[in-house]
Design a protein that fits this description.
homodimer, mainly alpha, three-stranded mixed sheet, 63% helix, globular
């Protein structure tokens, strides 16, 4: 067996621990009886530790070394190159630190939950301080010379820099400023009144719709979850607590993530060529399905009569479209509309950047949040529960994650421009609820590459230019201007 | 850290791979989209291989050695003693053989499925020959001096011997001979006519019943499966394709297995003190709940009016009782009644014993099956599909498994005698559907010990004597005589 073959075999073996963990997590979210919680938390931690140990072992290092000297196909060379990059990065992180981060995150998440319920940032502050401290140590272990926050960003978007992220986000912020014109003259400024549809009827309609837009039920499932998510290689969840329209669009969003997972090449699974770990790219797939496709006039014209027939909704197509495209600035990110969502992310990006540049202390966060929020939105959050305490991410140590939401939106728009160049009549498909050609393009230009390319490399390859704000701002102005 | 502490930590870590595999298997049976099959099969094989490698590593051997010399609590000494026994056994099996067995079993199971459908034993024969050959090599690797079949029996019932198994089984065979008097004078000789109950109504009633008899839904779930099973630490399935009564009693049976799992001590999980791997003991728990408890007059008197109310069954209590206690000799083991079930197992035990003593070649199996079946039941199976091809076990290499069904039944009866000695009025509880005292006895005398004792040791401890046929025959004659 060549060193390369041995390496690939080992990588695929290690990836099984990740596969198992993915299923344990899906079960945790969707199926697990509550009494299994402690055992499951331990199981997931042990599997992560195992995988980290095996991947960062001397054996992997030696095989990478030897494989480099072998005659390889271009794909094999890619596997070695990308694996080497990740090996070098992860190997610098001591196992003891990984473990401490995980234990600290578990405690901090509990503290955050309580603090949010009680609107009590002070009780969460010491935990957050500890999580930040560990994140700094983690980033410094990986690269003592790079800016800490940049290293953190790269956990979710390999190759990201602070500067290009800041540039992209501030361009988008500036570009959408004049879109936020709330007022009685704006369509959708009055929310649709609540309308009850039995959950089982909704579930059936969601399942039908997922199948209609190309979600493959031989590879995945649609379940009800507390949060809409895609897990375990394209199993999706939606929730029905936010009403019939949001659950539908959550399903479309998650189906976009899932199709990406389902189109990865199983022959390369366990190697970078068969994985999808850049979250900005992943998010581009869900956003494209949800927004460019799902909120197009063409698709709404397909969806509306079917909704009307199944749910007997007492609303006109115009009302539904206005609801889907409403701009309603609010305090809570996860409830935000497509346009103002970006401002929520920009706020978090700016604060994270300042935290890791030691320009902002934990105790200053609530005030800094509210001040900047007011500048962006024109009003202040009424309390920390609707402000700095609203998201779980920081308690778990996920710093640098938020920008992938905006990058995903921007990349989706850029892809969609390329799609329309290639197929100017693509919206005719949408008016029949047909995504066949759309999916073929995505499979060809995005999905099949797995993790081969960094975000900008893939953008170049798929759309002819690196990622910029242009396409997205153009799309937003077209739809919302 | 003492060697013992390190050992226990390592065992608990290794057991997480088994936990993960258990959940993967549950998902495979209950939730998995069909397109995940190949990937899942590989994942489960890799996790098993990992666990085997880690458990049979030099490190475990060295820790066992060192721990033996340390000052230990009695429980810790037990952990070391039992682990050492299993380590010695498993370490003798080459990893290459484990892998070959698993790959061969996968192929043989596919061939068996096809052969059964087509009633074509000849196409299955070469696969079965190979599986038997590997089972022989496996047993010889473990102990070159012991009879091969005895070593195989011990995979499911540690400490089992061919002789005591043969004695027990033939005592039971003789003892039940005069119970099999089919004929028009026997209650239940006419099956209850089919009666349709909507599956959702059945599911709700099954769930209610499981909860009523003490199944803990904070630790487990009840799902619909192709086969009734207990998996992943007490998650149970039942099926509704066999009618409303069989699905109910499958649920009770599986709930018995599950309560055992749920009562294991989590502090010892991953060590022999927190596991339940003797399948004869496991089966005693399901049989006791299903039969001694579930088919008692007292419980039927509790169940009947509730069934009547929920399902509006057009049958009398007497008819339901007669159906539950019918003796109807047939060709198919899994459809057999409580009494004739034993004959099915005895047939398989005898054939397996002869196979591994080289007294019976694979090509002779169909005729040998039918001949012995006729001696035991008084008629011949019409074809191999209802004869030698009916069970999946041999194709997967599970030789020595079947006797645990009869041992479980016998041990259940012996436990129930001890329970009635301790609580002569226990049936009064049953007439209220109440298993509180029954479960407390089982927890105290069976569940909490995990894998500490061999079957006969546990029988001695819990009931005052090793396992014999006496209690079971007495019970059968009382209920069926």
């Amino acid at each position: 067996m060549s060193a390369y073959e041995e390496l690939e075999r080992l990588l695929k073996r290690i990836s099984v621990l990740g596969d198992a963990n993915a299923l344990l997590y899906w079960d945790y979210e969707v199926m697990m009886p509550p009494g299994e919680q402690d055992r499951r938390t331990n199981e997931m931690a042990v599997l992560s530790e195992f995988a980290h140990e095996l991947f960062t072992s001397d054996q992997v290092g030696a095989l990478l070394e030897r494989a480099t000297a072998e005659a390889l196909t271009p794909e094999q060379r890619d596997v070695v190159k990308i694996t080497k990059r990740r090996y070098d990065r992860q190997r610098r992180v001591p196992a003891s630190l990984v473990k401490e981060m995980s234990a600290t995150a578990t405690r901090a998440e509990l503290a955050w939950k309580k603090a949010r319920e009680e609107n009590d940032f002070a009780s969460f502050a010491p935990h957050l301080r500890r999580v930040i401290e560990l994140a700094k140590r983690y980033a410094q272990a990986i690269d003592a010379t790079a800016p800490i926050y940049q290293t953190l960003l790269q956990d979710y978007d390999e190759g990201a820099t602070i500067d290009e992220t800041a540039t992209l986000l501030s361009h988008i912020a500036q570009g959408i400023k004049d879109l936020i014109r709330p007022g009685p003259d704006r369509p959708g400024s009055e929310p649709l009144p609540p309308y009850d549809v039995p959950v089982e009827k909704q579930r059936q309609f969601n399942e039908w719709l997922a199948r209609q837009i190309g979600y493959d039920f031989t590879k995945g499932r649609l379940d009800t979850g507390v949060h809409p998510m895609t897990m375990a290689f394209g199993r999706i969840t939606t929730r029905y607590t936010d009403g019939w329209l949001l659950s539908l669009y959550s399903t479309i969003h998650e189906a976009g993530h899932a199709m990406y997972e389902h189109n990865l090449d199983p022959a390369w699974h366990g190697t970078p060529l068969g994985q999808a770990s850049n979250l900005a790219i992943h998010e581009s797939q869900s956003r494209l399905l949800e927004n460019e496709f799902g909120k197009s006039d063409a698709f709404i014209s397909f969806l509306y009569p079917r909704l009307k027939e199944s749910y007997a909704i007492p609303f006109t197509e115009e009302q539904v479209r206005a609801e889907l495209r409403a701009i309603r600035p609010g305090t809570i990110r996860v409830n935000a509309d497509e346009v103002t969502y970006n401002l929520h992310v920009i706020l978090r990006f700016e604060l994270e950047r300042r935290i890791f540049a030691d320009q902002l202390a934990v105790e200053e966060l609530p005030a800094a949040w509210n001040d900047r929020f007011e500048e962006l939105f024109g009003f202040r959050p009424p309390n920390d529960k609707e402000g700095v305490l609203q998201d779980t991410h920081w308690s778990g140590g996920a710093f640098g994650y938020f920008p992938t939401y905006v990058k995903g939106s921007a990349f989706a728009a850029q892809q969609y421009e390329a799609i329309k160049r290639a197929m100017p009549d693509i919206e005719e498909d949408f008016s029949r609820g047909d995504t066949t050609r759309l999916r073929a393009w995505l499979r060809e230009h995005i999905h099949r590459h797995g993790d081969l390319y960094l975000l900008n490399e893939l953008a170049e390859k798929a759309t002819g230019k690196p990622l910029t704000a242009d396409s997205y701002l153009h799309y937003l102005h077209e739809r919302y201007g």
